[in-house]
Amino acid sequence: MIMANTTSMNGFLLMGFSDIRELQILHALLFLAVYLLTVASNLIVIIITTVDQHLQAPMYYFLKQLSLLDLSFISVTVPQSIHNSLMNDGCISQGQCILQVFFFASLSWSELAILTVMSYDRYAAICFPLYYEVIMDPSKCQCAVRAVWLCGSISGILYTSAIFSITFCKAKIIHHFFCDIPQLIKLSCSNDYLTVIGVVAFLSMLAFICFISIVLSYIRIFSTVLRIPSAEGRSKAFSTCLPHLFVVSFYISLGAFEFLKPTSDSPTAFDLMISIFYTVISPTLNPIIYGLRNEAIKEGCRKLLLSRQFTK
């Protein structure tokens, strides 16, 4: 009877983490704390890199875009999950699920694209310092950011169109706290999912190109840094690049695992933890590791807290 109801119902049923009411409340409170921390840290980076005239270099412009993406990315899944846990109701309408898939896919691919652009920015700054302002002039940076958002939007449209063109004839139960793309594909009982596989294969090829671009950029960066004669210069260059490399490695490895691992009707605790790291922890860590560790950003924070006006 439950199987029939979940097959014919209009939306989907998100199973979340637990059926125990106390654990649902705990999950909602933990997610709320992490969400507020993420919103606050990303907003700090966005505000400081917008109003501080000393932070208008391309590196900070791209960092602001990354924070904007992280803020949007975590807002796609976490508020809905908090609401479901507090209300003890895992139902999500098909319209909400479609929007969640679109924004989740769009922002995921936009983030990969902006990380690729940021690696090229570091490559230009370290390997071609004399020509950096020519290579990364403001008009080119703006075009790169437009391309990042356009790439993400196209990817989201492709994913959403492919997934919701399939026929869902199994019980519409998603063993996750959001509309997970692999879980949705698993609900298909026909060959309709072959379209989705084609989209995934095409976008995976683009992701591989981005990954190779990042790897090549960092090979050139590290070979250049190791030739710097002063230890202080090498240390400064590594302190700028290593946080970016950590963010890129963390994001790509977790994203690849999330999308390539086989789906299961009863996900393990490890599967759920990987999903949490990918969708929740990564947007939380990015502004802390990549932005608030930066001396110029910290100085901007001090000026923001201690004075009403930024130094022009």
Reconstruct the topology from this structure.
Blueprint: H1 2-8, E1 12-14, H2 21-51, H3 58-87, E2 91-92, H4 94-127, H5 132-135, H6 138-163, E3 173-174, H7 181-186, H8 193-225, H9 231-260, H10 269-292, H11 295-306
Parallel strand pairs: 1-3
Antiparallel strand pairs: 1-2
InterPro entries: GPCR_Rhodpsn, GPCR_Rhodpsn_7TM, Olfact_rcpt, Olfactory_GPCR
Domain G-protein coupled receptors family 1 profile: 41-290
Membrane topology: Multi-pass membrane protein
What structural keywords apply?
olfactory receptor activity; 11 helices; mainly alpha; GPCR_Rhodpsn; 312 residues; membrane; three-stranded mixed beta sheet; Rhopdopsin 7-helix transmembrane proteins; disordered N terminus; transmembrane; sensory transduction
